[in-house]
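Below is how a single chain appears once it has passed through the pipeline. First comes the sequence as given, then the structure the pipeline wrote out for it. We keep one example in the README because the format questions we get most often are answered faster by looking than by reading.
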Amino acid sequence: MEFDHAIRNGSARANANGHPLRGQFFLHSARVPLDEVVLRPKKKQPYLGGCGPFACASGAPVGGEVA
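Resulting structure:
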């Protein structure tokens, strides 16, 4: 969290050298401070069977062929 807050307005050295950051920088893709991010685990997708490159879970032939 400290690093996230430290980089919000760019580095102190860059700002002092006349190269300020335009806007603000955030680590999270939602562009909010990390201490405001709500982290939730991803929901597991149910296994529905289906076909892989070599076989189908249902036993059906691969490639859409129907006997």
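The mean pLDDT is 76.

See the next section for the split statistics.
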